Amino acid sequence: CNTIASFYGVSGRNLQCQYKDFLSDFKVWDQISHAKKWLVFPQNIGKRLSIDETSLSNGELYTILTNKSGKGRKGTIVAMIAGTKAETVIGVIEKIPLKQRNLVKEITLDMAGNMGLIAKKCFPNATRVTDRFHVQKLATEALQEIRIKYRWEAIDQENDAIEKAKKSKVNFESKILSNGDTLKQLLARSRYFLYKTKSKWTQNQTERAILLFELYPDIQKGYNLTQELRGIFENTKDKIIGFAKLAKWHEKVNQSGFKSFGTISRTIMNHYQTILNYF
Looking at the whole model, is its pTM more than 0.85? Predict the structure, then answer.
């Protein structure tokens, strides 16, 4: 509004009010009475939907149902509901005629129990598919947990060394690694490249990764597990092959002994059917 207003030499605030009150038909909108609580656009429904929660303002959560074929453009949103309570969300989505909801063939969702219940109740004919990005996010968080554990250890070790130096009345100097980082800096700065595949690392990130993996083999093992899981989703199209690859991944997780990855492994097994529906 401000950009357009400045071009025509008028007040941005006034232009915004004029648009809302007169040009947009906001005052005669048929959903204005409940717009703060829920919105439904039955005409936007399609065969492949996605349901997720998001935070739009002040940390408040909303449940959003979208049509995948909309690809984020006009006509993508099917429903938006304040909150994530299954009972409330179901009540709103059921305002869409059952005949239309029965045409939905697939719905993508996360692994939360409320989302599964909503999908099952509202779209009885739809195959439920676990969103791969929610699975991969868990693996990435597990990897970062290992890195953070070592970072706290490095901070404690440095604090101990500083205190010891003070008692001995000598100057403390942190050990500088070959890339110019201290150990503490290496662990802090490694956060970013651990999210990426090796092919997307910069030269500096590659040097930092070589040092990190040499000093902390567990982080390298965790990184490899994360990337292998990503590869399964990106390169597998057949459900049976996907099942076999995930089984091998579970075995590697068990051998690693990482508690956080073990938790992910159990989570995947508890949602095996909907995860396999991705392939």
Answer: no
pLDDT tens per residue, range 30-75? 677 787 899 999 999 999 999 999 988 778 899 999 999 988 888 8
Give me the residue spans of the domains in the chain.
1-30, 31-130, 133-276
Torsion region of 59: left, alpha or beta (phi above 0 gives left; psi -120 to 50 gives alpha): left
Contacts of 113 (CB under 8 A, 6+ apart): none
69-77: long-range contacts at Cβ-Cβ below 8 A with a sequence spacing of 24 or more?
A: 70/44, 70/46, 75/41, 75/43, 75/44, 76/44, 77/39, 77/41, 77/44
CA atoms of 49 and 245, how far apart (whole Å): 27
Tell me which DSSP letter residue 43 carries: G
Minimal CA–CA distance to 205: which of 227, 218, 190, 215?
190
Which of 231, 181, 227, 226 lies closest to 205, judged by CA? Answer: 181
pLDDT value of position 7? 67
- How far is it, in rounded angstroms, from Cα 44 to Cα 80? 12
CB 104 within 8 A of CB 123: yes
